[in-house]
TrEMBL record:
InterPro entries per UniProt: Aminotrans_3 (IPR005814), PyrdxlP-dep_Trfase (IPR015424), PyrdxlP-dep_Trfase_major (IPR015421), PyrdxlP-dep_Trfase_small (IPR015422)
Keyword Transferase set for record: yes
Organism annotation: Dietzia aurantiaca
Higher taxonomy: Bacteria, Bacillati, Actinomycetota, Actinomycetes, Mycobacteriales
Protein name from the UniProt record: Aspartate aminotransferase family protein
A Pfam family of this chain: Aminotran_3
Domain of life: Bacteria
Protein family (similarity comment): Belongs to the class-III pyridoxal-phosphate-dependent aminotransferase family.
Annotated GO MF terms: transaminase activity
Amino acid sequence: MPVPAPQNTAAREVYDKERAHVLAPWSAWGASDPMVITAAEGCYLTDGDDNRLLDFTSQLVNTNIGHQHPVVVKAIQDQAAELCTINPAHANGARAEAARLVAEVAPAGMNRVFFTNAGTEAVEHAIRMARRHTGRHKTLSAFRSYHGATTTSMNLTGDTRRWANDMGNTGAVHFHAPFLYRSQFYAENDKQECDRALEHLDSLIGLEGPDHFAALIIESVPGTVGIMVPPADYLRGVREICDKYGIVMICDEVMSGFGRTGEWLALDNFRSGDDDWAPDLITFAKGSNSGYVPLGGVILHDRIAASFEKIPYTGGLTYAGHPLACASVVATINLMRDEKIVENARTIGEEIIGPRLRELAEKHPSIGEVRGLGVFWAVEMVADRETREPLAPYGGSSEAMAKTFGAAKKDGLLLFMNYNRFHVVPPCIITADEANEGLDIFDRALDVADSYVRS
Ligand code: PMP
């Protein structure tokens, strides 16, 4: 989203230097005109002109404990004073404890953690583990998915970010996951959508060669592609299909994990307890330490970990399990437990964000649908409610969306915008007052979107 250059001289210098020397990520999306941020605290950011913005984005949906939490900042400082970095072949206290705590939030039987430096590396390694474990090559992932921006994870990614980056014949096969509002299966309810999506997956595997698939990767609740909360039994059905064909099931919890959906992991919303299904591998990153220091990882089920005792897993990273990152994981998980931050995310979702977004959908004709859990909500914007024509095309932008985004920002609210969707994804620590403040601003900004609706 292009933003005007700051007026303040010091911020302007930062802006100009960035534009001269930094190749911006996803530059095609306008990130080459960056907003300068000079400070951040809790749920608020300060921009280069000293404007205070309520952060309904959690940055890239990672600052689950908000910005600059003093407990986590201190844990990083203390670890830096003690030991900044070591060879990952050596053990250190921060990594050992971080692994124990991460395994504790995963389903029973998932006791081992492989650390990486980001979500995409977690995905790369999870796929390699699945290939090593099965001796097979092909992979399955949803069209509406995002799994990262390195080679394999980019091939797995189904959405438009893959288009310019496709690596050709990599064995990555894509399928339609459930999305009732824009059903590919002409379904009229969740149950039909679920059954038909599972039939489609099963038949696709049959046509593509069941004995050739190493892994199926799926976001437990898809994130950037639109927060399509799956029908209650979908993931359980996917597990059954994976079992039928000996495919390793990977739940990608990079965005949805660590409190975002009001549960520690999003998959917990679709399990009835530890006797229920579990994936073979889980990828995580972002919320595990709110992104204070780069970190990601793979949680392995014991049955996969055991196979690497016979055939070793050949893969590792210089900074895997970095002490500063692991110290921040330990502090973050303990803090989330002590301050009941996951419970807060659930309550705010159930009592404020969900009900108020549904009210906004009644009031504003530009809203086609709202959906979500916890502090993980998507607002699907349409030009026409009857035809469900999106307010911006898939993979593109529109004046209506940009102006609505701009109106909210001018009023002090930073929204997450993707094509025809606004996502309401504030930090999990958000208070009721802050949530209401942001939703009031969003309500006013939606009048702008309404003016583009065809009557
Ligand atoms: N998987 C999912 C579900 C994600 O949302 C993301 C990042 N948005 C990634 C993987 C990649 O993570 P990273 O940007 O840390 O490499």
